[in-house]
Write a structure and sequence with these properties.
Blueprint: E1 2-27, E2 34-44, E3 48-54, E4 60-66, E5 70-83, H1 98-106, H2 116-121, H3 135-141, H4 151-165, E6 167-168, H5 179-185, E7 187-188, H6 190-203, E8 208-215, E9 232-240, E10 244-248, E11 260-266, E12 275-281, E13 285-297
Helix pairs in contact: 3-6, 4-6
Length: 298
């Protein structure tokens, strides 16, 4: 599948911004079933000191400043990617139980006895800025993680339970809403559901990361569009030794395949925020975000 993604972010300030420093994570990355054909950023007004580098997690980050006074700031990211069919079926993944994976990640053996990928995955078992393990999260996860269950079956069951138990409500949470509140009220958005799953999985000792991206869908006549279409989307990946990272989308109760376009990943949303920075002035502002995902060819 060949996609073109246009992501426009516009800030309209009530007072002039005299100086700003920003970083944007709006350029997709190459990964196992995704190849980036092109990716550009158009910034208005003129951006000085513009440079792109990879962050700690390998995501593309654009750094720039705007040194002239302005009331409006617009950044337009246009990317084209090619997605290959991914065998996102549970019967493809065989082998380890969730306890075996947990024990592998927890082993304090000499580094040379573990693969580089497994060593890297261990950091995703730890607390992160927006997700901390808790007894409550472990308790919610427990029905899915019964003794001797294959890790992929257990994670798939957890994904299905989140989909059934929680209501998608874009008015309930903000970026500052604690995960405990989401768990208590069982409402939120894709970011919350990804964080919830990550917290549950880390609470039982597994390595899980947050994935940011987009989702495209053309539903059959009479059926609802998948939540997250034409907007930024989020899901999670769980690490399985010898298999690698396996994606799950609890918002839509599916394993991502050729409709999910990956921007990047990190421990949680704080590591992969699409746009953030510091401004001088500006006072209040209005924010307008527009995302269009277009399938150019299959």
């Amino acid at each position: 599948m060949h996609y073109k993604i246009t992501h426009i972010t516009k800030y309209d300030y009530t007072d002039k911004v005299s100086l700003s420093y920003s970083e944007a994570r709006l350029m997709p990355r190459n990964c196992k079933n995704q190849q980036v054909i092109s990716s550009t950023l158009d910034i208005e007004p003129y951006a000085a000191d513009f440079r792109i580098r990879e962050d700690f997690f390998g995501n593309h980050v654009a750094y720039f400043s705007m040194q002239q006074a302005h009331n409006v700031f617009t950044i337009t990211a246009v990317s084209e990617v090619q997605l290959q069919e991914n065998p996102a079926q549970l019967d493809f993944y065989q082998g380890y139980t969730w306890e075996e994976v947990r024990n592998m990640l927890a082993q304090q053996q000499h580094f040379s006895q573990q693969s580089v990928e497994t060593l890297d995955a261990r950091q995703y078992t730890l607390d992160s800025p927006l997700v901390a393990v808790s007894a409550e999260l472990a308790e919610y996860a427990q029905p899915s993680f019964t003794q001797g269950r294959l890790i992929t079956d257990a994670v798939n069951d957890l994904m299905q339970r989140i989909y059934k138990d929680f209501t998608f409500d874009p008015d309930f949470t903000t970026l500052a809403t604690p995960l405990a509140t989401v768990l208590e009220h069982r409402r939120g958005v894709c970011q919350d559901f990804a964080h919830l799953a990550i917290g549950c999985l880390r609470s039982v000792g597994l390595a899980t990361r947050y994935v940011s991206g987009y989702i495209e869908t053309l539903p059959p006549a009479g059926e609802a569009k998948l939540i997250g279409a034409d907007a930024s989307h989020a899901w999670f990946s769980v690490y399985v030794p010898e298999q690698g990272w396996i994606d799950f989308d609890p918002t839509n109760n599916q394993m991502p395949n050729t409709q999910h376009i990956t921007l990047g990943w990190g421990r949680d949303y704080a590591d992969i925020t699409p746009l953030k920075g510091v401004i001088f002035g500006g006072q209040q502002h209005e924010l307008d975000v527009s995302v269009h995902v277009e399938c150019l060819s299959s």
